[in-house]
Amino acid sequence: MTPPSPEIDVKRRAGWLPQDQDALEAWLAGHRERVESHGERQLHPVVQEFAQLIDGDPVLRMYAERMIAEVPSGKPYSKRHLQSVDQLLRLIDEVLTVAPEFGEEHVTLPLAAILDWTTGTRSGFAFYRDSRVNAMLKKLLTVWCEFLSSPASLYVLNDSDTGWMSQAARRAIGIEQYRHDPADPHWGFTSWNDFFTRRFHQKARPVAEPDDDAVIVSACESTPYSIKTGVQRRDRFWLKSQPYSLEDMLAGDESVDQFVGGTVYQAFLSATNYHRWHAPVAGTIVRAFVQDGTYYSEADSEGPAAVEPTNSQGYLAHVATRSIILIDADDPAIGLVAVVLVGMVEVSSCVIAPPVTAGYHVAKGDELGHFQFGGSTHCLIFRPGAIADFSLGVLPQPENPDAPLVLVRSKLATATATSRAGG
Protein backbone atom coordinates (compact mmCIF):
# COMPACT_ATOMS: atom_id res chain seq x y z
CA MET A 1 0.00 0.00 0.00
CA THR A 2 1.17 3.56 -0.68
CA PRO A 3 1.47 5.53 2.54
CA PRO A 4 -0.13 8.98 2.58
CA SER A 5 1.82 12.06 3.55
CA PRO A 6 2.26 12.10 7.34
CA GLU A 7 0.57 14.89 9.28
CA ILE A 8 1.34 16.32 12.68
CA ASP A 9 0.09 13.81 15.23
CA VAL A 10 -0.24 14.94 18.84
CA LYS A 11 0.56 11.47 20.19
CA ARG A 12 3.84 11.54 18.23
CA ARG A 13 4.49 15.21 18.91
CA ALA A 14 3.99 14.62 22.63
CA GLY A 15 6.19 11.51 22.73
CA TRP A 16 3.39 9.00 23.38
CA LEU A 17 4.12 7.18 20.10
CA PRO A 18 7.40 7.19 18.12
CA GLN A 19 7.94 10.01 15.65
CA ASP A 20 9.29 7.46 13.19
CA GLN A 21 6.64 5.22 11.59
CA ASP A 22 9.15 2.38 11.14
CA ALA A 23 9.78 2.38 14.90
CA LEU A 24 6.07 2.08 15.60
CA GLU A 25 5.67 -0.76 13.12
CA ALA A 26 8.74 -2.53 14.54
CA TRP A 27 7.20 -2.37 18.02
CA LEU A 28 3.91 -3.73 16.69
CA ALA A 29 5.72 -6.60 14.96
CA GLY A 30 7.63 -7.45 18.14
CA HIS A 31 4.49 -7.27 20.26
CA ARG A 32 2.64 -9.56 17.85
CA GLU A 33 5.52 -12.09 18.01
CA ARG A 34 5.46 -12.05 21.82
CA VAL A 35 1.73 -12.76 21.84
CA GLU A 36 2.05 -15.56 19.29
CA SER A 37 4.83 -17.18 21.32
CA HIS A 38 2.40 -17.66 24.23
CA GLY A 39 0.04 -19.78 22.18
CA GLU A 40 -3.70 -19.95 22.89
CA ARG A 41 -3.68 -19.00 26.56
CA GLN A 42 -6.79 -17.85 28.42
CA LEU A 43 -7.65 -14.18 28.12
CA HIS A 44 -8.17 -11.88 31.10
CA PRO A 45 -11.87 -11.85 32.14
CA VAL A 46 -12.29 -8.21 31.07
CA VAL A 47 -10.95 -9.03 27.60
CA GLN A 48 -13.28 -12.02 27.43
CA GLU A 49 -16.17 -9.67 28.26
CA PHE A 50 -15.08 -7.35 25.45
CA ALA A 51 -14.99 -10.31 23.05
CA GLN A 52 -18.53 -11.31 24.08
CA LEU A 53 -19.77 -7.76 23.51
CA ILE A 54 -18.37 -7.68 19.97
CA ASP A 55 -19.43 -11.22 19.10
CA GLY A 56 -22.94 -10.77 20.51
CA ASP A 57 -23.86 -7.67 18.52
CA PRO A 58 -23.94 -7.93 14.71
CA VAL A 59 -23.37 -4.18 14.16
CA LEU A 60 -20.36 -4.01 16.48
CA ARG A 61 -19.00 -7.20 14.98
CA MET A 62 -19.35 -5.70 11.50
CA TYR A 63 -17.54 -2.49 12.54
CA ALA A 64 -14.78 -4.44 14.31
CA GLU A 65 -14.11 -6.70 11.33
CA ARG A 66 -14.28 -3.84 8.86
CA MET A 67 -11.96 -1.51 10.81
CA ILE A 68 -9.29 -4.21 10.65
CA ALA A 69 -9.86 -4.89 6.95
CA GLU A 70 -9.94 -1.22 5.92
CA VAL A 71 -6.74 0.75 5.31
CA PRO A 72 -6.55 3.81 7.60
CA SER A 73 -6.49 7.16 5.86
CA GLY A 74 -3.97 9.73 6.96
CA LYS A 75 -1.66 7.20 8.63
CA PRO A 76 1.53 6.13 6.83
CA TYR A 77 1.48 2.38 7.42
CA SER A 78 3.63 0.31 5.08
CA LYS A 79 1.88 -2.96 5.89
CA ARG A 80 -1.05 -4.45 7.79
CA HIS A 81 -0.33 -5.54 11.36
CA LEU A 82 -3.82 -6.81 12.27
CA GLN A 83 -5.64 -9.76 10.70
CA SER A 84 -8.61 -10.55 12.94
CA VAL A 85 -10.66 -9.44 15.93
CA ASP A 86 -9.31 -12.37 17.94
CA GLN A 87 -5.74 -11.27 17.25
CA LEU A 88 -6.60 -7.69 18.24
CA LEU A 89 -8.01 -8.87 21.57
CA ARG A 90 -4.94 -10.99 22.28
CA LEU A 91 -2.66 -8.03 21.58
CA ILE A 92 -4.72 -5.97 24.04
CA ASP A 93 -4.65 -8.74 26.65
CA GLU A 94 -0.84 -8.79 26.59
CA VAL A 95 -0.42 -5.15 27.64
CA LEU A 96 -2.64 -5.33 30.74
CA THR A 97 0.47 -6.33 32.70
CA VAL A 98 2.98 -4.15 30.82
CA ALA A 99 4.31 -0.79 32.00
CA PRO A 100 5.44 1.84 29.47
CA GLU A 101 9.15 1.88 28.72
CA PHE A 102 11.33 4.90 27.99
CA GLY A 103 12.83 5.68 24.60
CA GLU A 104 12.73 8.41 21.99
CA GLU A 105 11.55 5.86 19.45
CA HIS A 106 9.62 3.66 21.85
CA VAL A 107 5.93 3.25 22.54
CA THR A 108 4.69 4.95 25.71
CA LEU A 109 1.02 4.24 24.99
CA PRO A 110 0.92 0.52 24.06
CA LEU A 111 -2.87 0.31 23.74
CA ALA A 112 -2.89 3.38 21.50
CA ALA A 113 -0.22 1.74 19.34
CA ILE A 114 -2.25 -1.47 19.00
CA LEU A 115 -5.48 0.36 18.16
CA ASP A 116 -3.84 3.04 16.00
CA TRP A 117 -4.60 1.28 12.70
CA THR A 118 -8.26 0.72 13.53
CA THR A 119 -8.94 4.23 14.89
CA GLY A 120 -8.04 5.75 11.53
CA THR A 121 -10.63 3.85 9.48
CA ARG A 122 -14.22 4.75 8.63
CA SER A 123 -15.57 1.78 10.54
CA GLY A 124 -13.24 2.57 13.43
CA PHE A 125 -14.70 6.06 13.73
CA ALA A 126 -18.12 4.48 14.33
CA PHE A 127 -16.85 1.66 16.56
CA TYR A 128 -15.02 3.92 19.02
CA ARG A 129 -17.97 6.30 19.33
CA ASP A 130 -20.32 3.54 20.50
CA SER A 131 -21.18 3.98 24.19
CA ARG A 132 -21.00 0.23 24.87
CA VAL A 133 -17.49 0.05 23.44
CA ASN A 134 -16.39 2.99 25.57
CA ALA A 135 -17.87 1.39 28.68
CA MET A 136 -15.76 -1.71 27.95
CA LEU A 137 -12.66 0.36 27.23
CA LYS A 138 -13.13 2.04 30.60
CA LYS A 139 -13.11 -1.40 32.25
CA LEU A 140 -9.96 -2.39 30.34
CA LEU A 141 -8.19 0.83 31.32
CA THR A 142 -9.24 0.38 34.94
CA VAL A 143 -7.62 -3.06 35.00
CA TRP A 144 -4.46 -1.71 33.42
CA CYS A 145 -4.41 1.27 35.78
CA GLU A 146 -4.61 -1.12 38.75
CA PHE A 147 -1.48 -2.86 37.46
CA LEU A 148 0.31 0.46 36.90
CA SER A 149 -0.56 1.42 40.48
CA SER A 150 0.97 -1.78 41.89
CA PRO A 151 4.61 -2.49 42.84
CA ALA A 152 4.77 -5.00 39.96
CA SER A 153 4.91 -2.07 37.53
CA LEU A 154 8.19 -0.77 38.99
CA TYR A 155 10.28 -3.07 36.79
CA VAL A 156 10.62 -0.27 34.20
CA LEU A 157 12.33 1.97 36.76
CA ASN A 158 15.81 0.73 35.95
CA ASP A 159 18.92 2.12 34.23
CA SER A 160 18.69 0.08 31.01
CA ASP A 161 18.29 1.84 27.66
CA THR A 162 14.51 1.52 27.96
CA GLY A 163 14.39 2.20 31.70
CA TRP A 164 13.20 5.44 33.26
CA MET A 165 16.36 5.67 35.37
CA SER A 166 18.69 5.67 32.36
CA GLN A 167 20.84 8.73 31.72
CA ALA A 168 18.76 9.65 28.66
CA ALA A 169 15.51 9.39 30.65
CA ARG A 170 16.95 11.43 33.52
CA ARG A 171 17.78 14.21 31.07
CA ALA A 172 14.42 13.99 29.32
CA ILE A 173 12.34 14.28 32.49
CA GLY A 174 14.76 16.46 34.48
CA ILE A 175 14.48 14.19 37.51
CA GLU A 176 16.51 16.58 39.67
CA GLN A 177 13.50 18.94 39.62
CA TYR A 178 11.26 16.33 41.25
CA ARG A 179 10.91 14.95 44.74
CA HIS A 180 12.63 11.56 44.81
CA ASP A 181 15.09 9.51 46.84
CA PRO A 182 18.31 8.97 44.80
CA ALA A 183 19.45 6.28 47.25
CA ASP A 184 16.35 4.11 46.83
CA PRO A 185 16.35 1.41 44.08
CA HIS A 186 13.18 2.93 42.62
CA TRP A 187 13.79 6.54 43.74
CA GLY A 188 11.26 6.04 46.53
CA PHE A 189 8.29 5.55 44.20
CA THR A 190 5.81 2.77 44.99
CA SER A 191 4.49 2.13 41.45
CA TRP A 192 4.63 3.32 37.85
CA ASN A 193 1.70 5.69 38.47
CA ASP A 194 3.39 7.04 41.59
CA PHE A 195 6.44 7.83 39.45
CA PHE A 196 4.41 9.29 36.60
CA THR A 197 2.46 11.61 38.90
CA ARG A 198 5.64 12.75 40.66
CA ARG A 199 5.72 16.19 42.26
CA PHE A 200 8.15 19.03 41.69
CA HIS A 201 10.37 20.30 44.46
CA GLN A 202 8.68 23.27 46.13
CA LYS A 203 10.92 25.87 44.45
CA ALA A 204 11.02 24.24 40.98
CA ARG A 205 7.85 25.93 39.68
CA PRO A 206 7.14 29.14 41.62
CA VAL A 207 3.77 30.84 41.18
CA ALA A 208 4.07 33.89 38.94
CA GLU A 209 3.22 37.10 40.80
CA PRO A 210 1.24 35.37 43.56
CA ASP A 211 -0.08 38.64 45.00
CA ASP A 212 -1.40 40.00 41.68
CA ASP A 213 -4.83 38.51 40.96
CA ALA A 214 -4.75 39.95 37.44
CA VAL A 215 -1.93 37.58 36.46
CA ILE A 216 -3.28 34.22 35.25
CA VAL A 217 -0.92 31.24 35.40
CA SER A 218 -0.59 28.05 33.38
CA ALA A 219 -2.64 25.20 34.82
CA CYS A 220 -0.38 22.50 33.34
CA GLU A 221 3.17 21.98 32.09
CA SER A 222 2.15 21.99 28.45
CA THR A 223 2.66 23.05 24.84
CA PRO A 224 0.20 25.63 23.40
CA TYR A 225 -2.17 24.24 20.81
CA SER A 226 -4.89 26.80 20.19
CA ILE A 227 -6.26 30.18 21.29
CA LYS A 228 -9.75 31.01 20.04
CA THR A 229 -11.87 34.05 20.80
CA GLY A 230 -15.57 34.73 20.28
CA VAL A 231 -16.48 31.09 20.99
CA GLN A 232 -20.11 30.11 20.56
CA ARG A 233 -22.56 28.35 22.84
CA ARG A 234 -22.98 25.58 20.29
CA ASP A 235 -20.98 24.89 17.14
CA ARG A 236 -20.28 21.94 14.87
CA PHE A 237 -16.98 20.90 16.44
CA TRP A 238 -16.72 17.86 14.16
CA LEU A 239 -16.26 20.05 11.05
CA LYS A 240 -12.98 20.87 9.34
CA SER A 241 -12.44 24.13 11.20
CA GLN A 242 -12.73 22.35 14.60
CA PRO A 243 -14.54 25.25 16.33
CA TYR A 244 -15.18 25.12 20.05
CA SER A 245 -18.73 24.38 21.18
CA LEU A 246 -19.13 25.52 24.78
CA GLU A 247 -22.26 23.56 25.60
CA ASP A 248 -20.57 20.32 24.50
CA MET A 249 -17.19 21.05 26.12
CA LEU A 250 -18.84 21.84 29.45
CA ALA A 251 -21.32 18.94 29.22
CA GLY A 252 -24.34 21.25 29.31
CA ASP A 253 -23.32 22.91 32.58
CA GLU A 254 -25.50 25.84 33.68
CA SER A 255 -22.48 28.17 33.46
CA VAL A 256 -22.26 27.97 29.66
CA ASP A 257 -23.98 31.30 28.97
CA GLN A 258 -21.32 33.19 30.93
CA PHE A 259 -18.63 32.03 28.49
CA VAL A 260 -20.40 32.72 25.19
CA GLY A 261 -18.21 35.07 23.14
CA GLY A 262 -15.23 34.37 25.40
CA THR A 263 -11.80 32.80 24.93
CA VAL A 264 -10.55 29.20 24.92
CA TYR A 265 -6.86 28.43 25.46
CA GLN A 266 -5.82 24.82 24.80
CA ALA A 267 -2.45 23.10 25.34
CA PHE A 268 -1.21 19.49 25.49
CA LEU A 269 1.01 17.54 27.88
CA SER A 270 3.92 15.40 26.69
CA ALA A 271 5.03 11.98 27.90
CA THR A 272 7.90 13.31 29.99
CA ASN A 273 6.03 16.33 31.38
CA TYR A 274 4.64 16.94 34.84
CA HIS A 275 1.06 15.62 34.98
CA ARG A 276 -0.64 17.46 37.80
CA TRP A 277 -3.05 20.39 37.36
CA HIS A 278 -3.00 23.70 39.20
CA ALA A 279 -5.41 26.59 39.67
CA PRO A 280 -4.84 29.32 37.05
CA VAL A 281 -6.45 31.90 39.37
CA ALA A 282 -7.26 32.38 43.02
CA GLY A 283 -10.92 31.78 43.70
CA THR A 284 -13.70 29.57 45.00
CA ILE A 285 -14.63 26.24 43.46
CA VAL A 286 -18.18 26.38 42.09
CA ARG A 287 -18.34 22.82 40.72
CA ALA A 288 -15.88 20.01 40.00
CA PHE A 289 -16.91 16.80 38.25
CA VAL A 290 -15.77 14.12 35.82
CA GLN A 291 -17.67 13.76 32.55
CA ASP A 292 -17.47 10.31 30.98
CA GLY A 293 -16.79 10.23 27.25
CA THR A 294 -14.94 8.46 24.48
CA TYR A 295 -11.45 6.94 24.77
CA TYR A 296 -10.12 6.27 21.26
CA SER A 297 -12.42 8.30 19.03
CA GLU A 298 -10.63 10.50 16.48
CA ALA A 299 -11.69 13.42 14.30
CA ASP A 300 -12.44 12.36 10.74
CA SER A 301 -13.74 15.73 9.55
CA GLU A 302 -10.88 16.75 7.29
CA GLY A 303 -10.35 13.63 5.24
CA PRO A 304 -7.01 11.84 4.89
CA ALA A 305 -5.03 14.89 6.03
CA ALA A 306 -6.65 15.13 9.43
CA VAL A 307 -7.10 11.73 10.97
CA GLU A 308 -5.27 12.19 14.26
CA PRO A 309 -3.17 15.31 13.72
CA THR A 310 -3.05 17.87 16.50
CA ASN A 311 -6.41 19.32 15.47
CA SER A 312 -8.11 16.22 16.85
CA GLN A 313 -7.48 17.89 20.21
CA GLY A 314 -10.29 20.35 19.60
CA TYR A 315 -12.61 17.45 18.83
CA LEU A 316 -11.47 15.51 21.91
CA ALA A 317 -12.23 18.46 24.17
CA HIS A 318 -15.91 17.87 23.37
CA VAL A 319 -16.18 14.08 23.40
CA ALA A 320 -13.41 12.52 25.51
CA THR A 321 -13.53 11.71 29.23
CA ARG A 322 -12.67 14.91 31.07
CA SER A 323 -12.65 16.69 34.42
CA ILE A 324 -14.47 20.01 34.50
CA ILE A 325 -13.61 22.46 37.28
CA LEU A 326 -15.35 25.83 37.57
CA ILE A 327 -13.62 28.54 39.63
CA ASP A 328 -15.14 31.89 40.60
CA ALA A 329 -12.02 34.07 40.57
CA ASP A 330 -11.33 36.46 43.42
CA ASP A 331 -10.73 39.13 40.77
CA PRO A 332 -14.24 40.19 39.65
CA ALA A 333 -12.98 41.24 36.21
CA ILE A 334 -11.96 37.64 35.55
CA GLY A 335 -15.08 36.15 37.10
CA LEU A 336 -15.87 32.52 36.33
CA VAL A 337 -13.12 30.38 34.77
CA ALA A 338 -13.58 26.82 33.46
CA VAL A 339 -10.66 24.39 33.63
CA VAL A 340 -11.26 21.35 31.39
CA LEU A 341 -8.76 18.50 31.76
CA VAL A 342 -9.17 16.12 28.82
CA GLY A 343 -8.13 12.46 28.87
CA MET A 344 -6.64 11.20 25.60
CA VAL A 345 -6.66 7.45 24.74
CA GLU A 346 -5.08 5.60 27.71
CA VAL A 347 -4.80 8.89 29.57
CA SER A 348 -8.39 9.02 30.72
CA SER A 349 -8.26 8.71 34.51
CA CYS A 350 -8.90 12.34 35.40
CA VAL A 351 -8.53 12.50 39.19
CA ILE A 352 -9.79 15.62 40.97
CA ALA A 353 -7.94 16.28 44.25
CA PRO A 354 -10.20 15.52 47.29
CA PRO A 355 -10.34 19.11 48.66
CA VAL A 356 -11.48 20.48 45.29
CA THR A 357 -15.23 20.56 45.80
CA ALA A 358 -17.90 23.27 45.75
CA GLY A 359 -17.11 26.05 48.22
CA TYR A 360 -13.42 25.26 48.58
CA HIS A 361 -11.11 28.25 48.09
CA VAL A 362 -7.91 27.79 46.08
CA ALA A 363 -4.92 30.10 45.93
CA LYS A 364 -3.42 30.72 42.53
CA GLY A 365 -1.20 27.75 41.71
CA ASP A 366 -2.80 25.31 44.17
CA GLU A 367 -3.09 21.71 42.99
CA LEU A 368 -6.45 20.71 41.47
CA GLY A 369 -5.79 17.06 40.52
CA HIS A 370 -3.88 14.90 38.06
CA PHE A 371 -4.02 12.50 35.14
CA GLN A 372 -3.60 9.02 36.63
CA PHE A 373 -1.49 7.79 33.73
CA GLY A 374 0.50 10.44 31.95
CA GLY A 375 -1.10 13.52 30.47
CA SER A 376 -3.21 14.71 27.61
CA THR A 377 -4.69 18.07 26.72
CA HIS A 378 -6.49 20.78 28.64
CA CYS A 379 -8.51 23.95 28.07
CA LEU A 380 -8.96 27.15 30.03
CA ILE A 381 -12.20 28.97 29.21
CA PHE A 382 -12.63 32.66 30.05
CA ARG A 383 -15.60 35.01 29.91
CA PRO A 384 -15.66 37.66 27.17
CA GLY A 385 -13.49 40.64 28.07
CA ALA A 386 -11.63 38.86 30.86
CA ILE A 387 -8.30 38.55 29.04
CA ALA A 388 -6.25 41.62 28.15
CA ASP A 389 -3.44 39.64 26.49
CA PHE A 390 -1.49 36.39 26.55
CA SER A 391 2.17 36.34 27.50
CA LEU A 392 4.90 36.63 24.89
CA GLY A 393 5.83 33.20 23.59
CA VAL A 394 2.37 31.72 24.09
CA LEU A 395 1.83 31.29 20.36
CA PRO A 396 -0.01 28.06 19.62
CA GLN A 397 0.10 25.60 16.77
CA PRO A 398 -0.37 25.80 13.82
CA GLU A 399 0.86 29.41 13.93
CA ASN A 400 4.01 28.10 15.62
CA PRO A 401 4.65 24.38 14.93
CA ASP A 402 7.53 24.52 17.43
CA ALA A 403 5.59 26.24 20.19
CA PRO A 404 7.70 26.24 23.36
CA LEU A 405 6.71 24.47 26.56
CA VAL A 406 4.80 26.69 28.98
CA LEU A 407 5.81 25.87 32.56
CA VAL A 408 3.09 25.13 35.08
CA ARG A 409 2.31 28.10 37.37
CA SER A 410 4.22 30.46 35.07
CA LYS A 411 2.54 33.60 33.71
CA LEU A 412 0.08 32.72 30.96
CA ALA A 413 -2.06 35.82 30.54
CA THR A 414 -3.07 39.13 32.06
CA ALA A 415 -6.64 40.08 32.92
CA THR A 416 -8.31 43.29 31.80
CA ALA A 417 -7.21 46.73 32.97
CA THR A 418 -10.28 47.09 35.20
CA SER A 419 -9.01 44.07 37.09
CA ARG A 420 -5.57 45.59 37.60
CA ALA A 421 -7.19 48.78 38.86
CA GLY A 422 -9.11 46.80 41.44
CA GLY A 423 -12.56 46.52 39.83
Assign a percent range to the helix content: 25-40%
Protein structure class: alpha+beta
Mean pLDDT: 86
Main β sheet profile: 7 strands, antiparallel
- Number-wise, the strands total 13
Could you please describe the fold and organization of this structure?
This protein has three domains: 10-150, no CATH class; 152-190, no CATH class; 215-420. The strands form three sheets. The chain has a seven-stranded antiparallel β-sheet with strand order 2-3-11-7-6-5-9, covered by helices on one side. A three-stranded antiparallel β-sheet has the order 1-13-12. A three-stranded antiparallel β-sheet has the order 4-10-8, with no helix packed on it. Helix content is 29%, strand content 16%. Helix 3 packs across helix 4, helix 3 runs antiparallel to helix 5 (85-95) and helix 5 (85-95) runs antiparallel to helix 6. It has helices at 10-13, 21-37, 45-56, 58-69, 85-95, 110-119, 122-127, 131-148, 167-173, 192-196, 246-249, 256-259, 312-319, 417-420; strands spanning 215-217, 223-229, 263-268, 276-278, 283-291, 322-329, 336-342, 350-352, 361-362, 367-371, 377-382, 387-390, 411-415. The chain is globular. The N and C termini lie far apart (63 Å). The chain is built from 14 helices and 13 strands. The model is unreliable at 1-8, 302-310 and 419-423 (pLDDT under 50). With 423 residues, it is α+β, with helices and mostly antiparallel strands.
